[in-house]
Design a protein that fits this description.
The radius of gyration is 46 Å and the shape is elongated. The protein is α+β, with helices and mostly antiparallel strands. α4 crosses α6. Helices cover 52% and strands 25% of the residues.
Length: 281
């Protein structure tokens, strides 16, 4: 009985030792990459040229794992004329238009990392590549592009053309750096109050002109309707006047009298005389 207990204790102790040593070794020899990420392997500061896809992998116990997201990310910029505004986290950007007017706007950039160049980005730029590459490039491109447009163009639906131009220039500047720009969104454009009032006044004047044009067209249509109605009446009168002969007028008079008094009897008196009527009691 004692031997059996000693053997059982030995087995339990052995298993405990294996677990104590094996569990840490398991984590040293394995790596798990989260969904939507790629794994970058570094060994004593050297960045391996390959990447690990999401899932479970074996690796050297001397290697480290760094994960970088491949998902679409949104970067909202924070640029302002005053340093205090920038530190406050405001994403308003002060830019100059073609006329030299200062306007504010918000910009959001959607981008993702090129998985084929993830190791290059990690090696040459680091994990904070959005602040190092996306931010300064976007600042420069935005200001350069807006400077070629007038304030009312930025404020109008022309803004879509500005977004497209910024997108194309950013894509050309970042594609070789391993960053793919998906889209650019400009929001909350704020013009100087005086210019904003002028634009609103211009829009109001245009609306009034359009209303007047509508009124003129309506009057033209009404005048045309009345002309056609008058022409119809004139045509009807001309047709009627052509048919108002003496026999017709006599017949019409007789019919009118008969409608007024059904008991009246018509008595003809000849071709040239007036007809006689006799009321029947």
């Amino acid at each position: 009985m004692i031997k059996k207990l000693n053997l059982g204790a030995l087995i339990i102790g052995f298993l405990a030792l294996v677990a104590f040593i094996g569990i840490p070794c398991w984590f040293l020899f394995t790596a798990n990459v989260d969904a939507g990420n790629v794994g970058i392997i570094t060994t004593f500061g050297y960045v391996e040229p390959y990447t690990l896809q999401s899932g479970f992998h074996f690796k050297s116990p001397f290697s480290g794992l760094h994960q970088m997201s491949m998902r679409t990310q949104a970067y909202t910029m924070s640029i302002a004329q005053e340093e205090s505004t920038a530190k406050s986290g405001d994403d308003t950007i002060a830019t100059l238009t073609k006329e030299g007017l200062s306007i504010d706007m918000d910009i959001t950039i959607l981008y993702h990392l090129d998985k084929d160049k993830a190791t290059d980005v990690f090696r040459n730029v680091g994990e904070d590549y959005a602040e190092i590459i996306v931010r300064p490039q976007a600042r420069s491109v935005l200001r350069n592009v807006v400077a070629t447009y007038s304030a009312d163009e930025v404020y109008s639906p022309e803004r879509a053309s500005i977004e497209q131009q910024i997108l194309l220039e950013l894509q050309n500047m970042t594609k070789d750096r391993g960053i793919i720009i998906e889209s650019v969104l400009l929001r909350n454009v704020k013009l100087p109050q005086q210019l904003n009032d002028a634009i609103q006044a211009k829009l109001t004047a245009q609306q009034k002109i359009q209303q007047k044009q509508f009124d003129v067209e309506t009057q033209k249509l009404e005048a045309e309707r009345m002309r056609q109605e008058a022409q119809g009446i004139a045509d009807a009168n001309r047709i009627i006047s052509g048919s108002l002969t003496e026999p017709y007028l006599t017949w019409y008079w007789i019919e009118s009298l008969k409608h007024q008094n059904a008991s009246i009897i018509y008595v003809p008196t000849g071709a040239n005389g007036m007809p006689l009527f006799k009321a029947v009691a």
